[in-house]
Specification:
The radius of gyration is 27 Å and the shape is elongated. It has 14 helices and 16 strands. It has helices spanning 19-27, 33-37, 109-112, 167-179, 190-196, 201-209, 214-240, 256-263, 271-284, 302-314, 327-341, 357-368, 404-411, 429-436, and strands at 43-46, 61-74, 83-90, 98-103, 118-124, 126-128, 131-134, 137-141, 155-158, 291-296, 319-323, 348-351, 374-377, 391-397, 418-423, 440-444. Helix 13 links the parallel strand 14 (391-397) and strand 15 (418-423). The longest helix is centred in the middle third of the chain and has 27 residues, at 214-240. The strands form three sheets. The protein has a seven-stranded mixed sheet, with no helix packed on it. Strands 12-13-11-14-15-10-16 form a seven-stranded parallel sheet, sandwiched between helices. Helix 6 (201-209) packs across helix 7 (214-240), helix 8 runs antiparallel to helix 10 (302-314) and helix 9 (271-284) packs parallel to helix 10 (302-314). The mean pLDDT is 87. With 450 residues, the protein is α/β, with parallel strands linked by helices. It has three domains: 4-45 and 156-238, no CATH class; 61-153, Nucleic acid-binding proteins (OB fold (Dihydrolipoamide Acetyltransferase, E2P)), CATH 2.40.50; 245-444, P-loop containing nucleotide triphosphate hydrolases (Rossmann fold, 3-Layer(aba) Sandwich), CATH 3.40.50.
Length: 450
């Protein structure tokens, strides 16, 4: 019996996980069996019902049995730029129809997909001037009596991908991890499960990745969601009961760094930005660690408020970590920070899963020795190898895209951290209190001029 969050075995123990796959997983913040099981699918493909060619429309998924009618080529008459086209017709008995399979870069399928044979087809259909076409598809041989093979009828998870990762590999790795554990330890009480009609943790984590039906999937998602909220409440209570630090006496006033940054801006801050900075500054100087949500529409100036507030902490000799959900977004934030802060003498670093080898080792050492003031990155920031000398302030952009465990892993790298969460998704005060406990909220309603 094992807890889902206690499986610390490295993913490199899994079949097919070499250096390239490990790097892809690292970009998703995955290093252990636990990380892999807590990877949320983007969606699920329902292959449990037949969708014949005669009934599918443009951009819909075909899920049916087909017979191969012919092979042909289009494009150049000879050479590698020819593309194989396979014509198939529906033989599911639930609807007629024909489809052209466009095999870009897969001309070898002429040797494996035989004319006259029956296959199970799953693919996205496009209507091109009255001709149904499909370039992204899966084909599996039908059974000897021409029926659906075992691949039909499943509900398959679709995971986020990075690097060389593929859906097939991630599914195989997750299956291997699930098979390695006889039973997962229960994380909720029987009273909670009965009250909210939940599954056991063991049932939920297995059905979440490989559900037997959509109904079971919804129950598994509900169970894991409530489990995450349960842990979030524990984190909130723990945050509130942390040892108090020495509070700054007197009113909280902007530091010289903050004033110099604000004075150098080619525009004036909005009233909401000024008010939010005052609220954040008072939190940063209080005896209790800050736990604040900064919300506002895209373009309202949330990131600028975050950078200016970071200067308040840097003036006290501490470090700041800024985490974004994707490498592209993290890079954009790093560029904006460099434009705004480098002339002030602030030492910035950019850390994601794509930073490799010697460069990565040198960067990690600089962070550990306190030679970096602000570290900007993705999930890589909460990996075990990242250590700070004096992390005091954690800023998380688009916080809803990170799980509780991910946020907690980053917070645990500091003794008494201040936390600022940013989101463009409005969260009502009552909901924020229900979900986040003692979270305070600042809102940017006014858009900057221009």
């Amino acid at each position: 019996m094992a807890y889902v969050r206690a499986l610390k075995t490295s993913i490199t123990e899994l079949s097919g996980v070499g250096p390239a796959t490990k790097a892809g997983y690292a970009e998703l913040g995955i290093a252990t069996y636990s990380d892999l099981l807590l990877l949320s699918p983007r969606t699920w493909e329902d292959r449990s019902e037949v969708h014949p060619l005669g009934l599918v429309q443009d951009s819909q998924m075909a899920n049916t049995l087909v017979e191969v009618l012919s092979h042909s080529y289009f494009g150049l008459k000879s050479g590698k730029k020819r593309t194989l086209k396979i014509i198939v017709r529906d033989v599911s008995g639930l609807g007629d129809g024909r489809l052209s399979l466009l095999c870009f870069g897969r001309n070898f399928l002429e040797r494996t997909i035989k004319v006259g044979r029956i296959y199970y087809l799953y693919g996205s259909v496009k209507d091109n001037r009255g001709e149904l076409q499909c370039s992204q598809f899966e084909l599996y041989p039908a059974t000897e009596d021409g029926d659906f093979p075992k691949q039909f009828g499943r509900i398959l998870p679709i995971y986020p991908l990075r690097g060389s990762l593929s859906q097939r590999l991630i599914r195989a790795n997750i299956k291997a991890v699930l098979a390695s554990v006889d039973t997962f330890a229960e994380e909720l009480t029987a009273t909670m499960r009965d009250r909210y009609h939940l599954m056991t943790t063991d049932q939920a984590i297995r059905a979440y990745h490989f559900p037997p039906s959509l109904e079971v999937l919804q129950k598994a998602r509900r169970t894991l969601a409530l489990t995450e909220l349960f842990y979030l409440q524990l984190v909130a209570r723990r945050h509130k009961s942390l040892v108090q630090r020495n509070a700054k006496t007197g009113p909280s006033i902007p530091t010289k760094l903050e004033l110099k940054c604000i004075e150098g801006l080619p525009f004036s801050l909005t009233a909401d930005q000024i008010a939010s900075l005052k609220e954040i500054r008072e939190d940063l100087d209080s005896e209790m660690p800050m736990n604040r949500l900064l919300q506002g529409d895209v373009g309202s100036g949330k990131t600028l408020v975050a950078w200016i507030s970071a200067l308040h902490v840097l003036s006290q000799g501490a470090q700041v970590a800024f985490m974004a959900p994707t490498e592209l977004l993290a890079r954009q934030h790093a560029e904006s920070a460099a434009a705004l802060l480098q002339d002030l003498g602030i030492r910035l670093a950019f850390l994601t899963g794509s930073v490799k080898n010697k460069e990565r080792r040198l960067l990690l050492e600089a962070i550990k020795e306190g030679e970096v003031d602000i570290v900007i990155g993705t999930h890589a920031l909460f990996s075990a190898e990242v250590a700070f000398k004096n992390l005091r302030y954690v800023i998380i952009d688009e916080q809803h895209r990170f799980g509780v465990e991910q946020r907690l892993a980053l917070l645990e790298k500091a003794q008494v951290p201040d936390l600022l969460l940013m989101t463009a998704t409005p969260i009502p005060r009552t909901l924020s209190l229900t979900v986040f406990g003692n979270l305070n909220v600042s809102t940017l309603k006014t858009m900057p001029a221009g």
